[in-house]
Specification:
- This protein has 186 residues and is α+β, with helices and mostly antiparallel strands.
- The chain has a single domain, classed as B-lactam Antibiotic, Isopenicillin N Synthase, Chain (Jelly Rolls, Sandwich), CATH 2.60.120.330.
- 20% of the residues lie in helices and 35% in strands.
- The strands form 2 sheets. Strands 1, 2, 3, 4, 5, 7, 10 and 12 form an 8-stranded antiparallel sheet that branches. A 4-stranded antiparallel sheet has the order 6-11-8-9, with no helix packed on it.
Length: 186
């Protein structure tokens, strides 16, 4: 399920500073990213550059993106943050992420035409400079049918009290990013 981004105070700051984040993103090299470890979801084409892993700062990566880091640090209860890159022609298979009481924010930074994202029964297109907020524990999938790479700033944050309304049996617990981001921290 998608949430109205205006419900979250930090969204306006992210959206008004998105071009600063995009500039920092552009200075990263492809070798700075690591492949998403769950290959059954995409086989290839989905890479990440972690800044925070479950509240732990990945200092060497944050040093490369100081302005992005400053903005992330203004978001209450951040668990995980980084850039998520989806190569042209990549499809991330339907999956149910892990919850731990978190919501996920995607801020579009580089979004070619042909990129779509489904959460539950709703499909949306990312937009540069705009946030999508959703419950990662709800089935979702993504497509990049464009000609260039799609990159979003991905932020997991603790859901405000009473906002998660998906019944507990439908929610998946734990976190797939922990091992991935631990590798990147080394």
């Amino acid at each position: 399920m998608f949430y109205d981004p205006t419900q979250f105070d930090f969204v306006s700051s992210l959206e008004s500073n998105w071009q600063i984040l995009k500039q920092e993103l552009k200075q990263l090299r492809q070798g700075d990213y690591i492949p998403w470890p769950e290959k059954y979801l995409d086989r290839k084409g989905w890479d990440t550059f972690g800044l925070y892993a479950f509240g732990i700062k990945i200092a060497k990566n944050c040093d490369l993106c100081p302005e992005t880091t400053k903005l992330i640090e203004t978001i209450p209860d951040v668990a995980t943050a980084g850039f998520s890159s989806l190569a042209a022609g990549t499809h991330i298979a339907p999956q149910t992420g892990y919850s731990d009481g978190l919501l996920r924010c995607h801020l579009g930074l580089m979004v070619p035409d042909g990129c779509h994202f489904r959460v539950g029964d709703t499909t949306k297109a990312w937009q540069e400079g705009k946030c999508l907020i959703f419950d990662n524990a709800t089935e979702h999938e993504a497509w990049n049918n464009g000609n260039t790479t799609r990159v979003v700033l991905l932020v997991d944050f603790k859901a405000p009290e009473g906002i998660l309304n998906v019944p507990q049996p439908e929610r998946r617990q734990g976190s797939p990013l922990l091992n991935l981001l631990k590798k990147q921290k080394q």
